[in-house]
Design brief:
4 helices, three-stranded parallel sheet, mainly alpha, single chain
Length: 99
């Protein structure tokens, strides 16, 4: 229900619950169960190990995901970058967020 009404997903460093929510949103978009919206991970230093594993193990070593799946996620460090990604998405799709 939380994801159903989301217009963007900004994920801060966290634990297992954070990973669960992030991967749930990513999976729903990837499988076209919900419409695409921005998925943004904040903190390149925090997320770089996980993202490297996703790229090397899931994509390259085992071919469990496609290259396009990686394009669903943005990794940034500042609030300005988050806002820019959200604005770019909503301008591109001619949508108006409700925030």
């Amino acid at each position: 229900m939380f994801v159903k009404y989301s217009q963007g997903f900004v994920v801060m460093p966290g634990g297992f619950g954070t990973l669960d929510e992030f991967f749930e949103a990513l999976t729903l978009i990837q499988t076209n169960k919900i419409d695409k919206f921005p998925l943004i991970l904040v903190g390149t230093k925090f997320w770089e190990g996980l993202w490297e594993w996703i790229s090397t193990t899931l994509l390259h070593a085992n071919n469990n995901i496609s290259k396009e799946d990686l394009d669903l996620v943005h990794i940034v460090d500042t609030s300005e970058e988050v806002v820019a990604i959200l604005n770019e998405f909503y301008n591109e799709y001619k949508l108006s967020p409700n925030f």
